[in-house]
Amino acid sequence: MIIVPVKEGENIDRALKKLKRKFEKTGVVKELRERQKFTKPSVKRRDEVLKAVYIQQLQQQSDNS
Hints:
Largest sheet: none
Radius of gyration: 19 Å
Structural class: mainly alpha
Strand content: under 5%
Shape: elongated
Number of domains: 1
Number of helices: 3
């Protein structure tokens, strides 16, 4: 459970901003979206490989420049 302490006299907008930031850091929303649909392990693996290839190409381009 995420708890955001609100000080007396503190703006509600600021407290909401803190709550949103904590949600992003913990990854709750991302996990919920992942759980909404099932992806096969082979598809997950394929995506990981494609991402690794992309990152490797970016690193090679930055090394050559």
